[in-house]
Write a structure and sequence with these properties.
single chain, about 130 residues, seven-stranded antiparallel sheet, 7 strands, DUF2255 family protein
């Protein structure tokens, strides 16, 4: 029986919207231990959660998340099982995600880097599992 949840609940999305940092914990190949636990910025666009890798597609957690497609995330004191996949590459979606980063992290010193080309190419779609 497939118990995969395809959408975050409204309550969960509010957690992502109101917290500035998500901890990304993609699984190692053994699917029980984590590659690393990385605090990352996340945004919500059209009911979906996205995060970008600081070092583009060479970001360690991004590479592991894409390879394993599973892990856990935490936001605040809430933990969730998660699935990961590279975000659809489209100018429209990239623009929406960039706008969400600008709105949520306005004034942050790291914002220009997170909306630049390399991190944009490493946008991860984070889904419930």
């Amino acid at each position: 029986m497939d118990t995969t949840t395809t959408q975050w609940t409204t309550e969960q999305l509010n957690l992502f919207l109101n917290d500035h940092t998500l901890t990304m914990k993609p699984y190692n190949p053994d699917m029980t231990t984590f590659e690393e636990e990385s605090p990352v910025w996340e945004v919500v666009v059209d009911g979906n959660v996205y995060s970008r890798g600081w070092n583009g597609q060479q970001t360690n957690w991004y590479m592991t998340a894409v390879a394993q497609n599973a892990g856990e995330i935490s936001v605040g004191d809430h933990n969730f099982a998660a699935r990961f996949e590279p975000a659809e590459q489209s100018a429209d979606l990239d623009a929406k995600i960039t706008a969400a980063y600008k709105a949520k992290y306005d004034g942050q010193r790291s914002l220009p880097k997170m909306i630049s080309e390399n991190p944009t190419a490493a946008t991860l779609h984070v889904m419930p599992r």
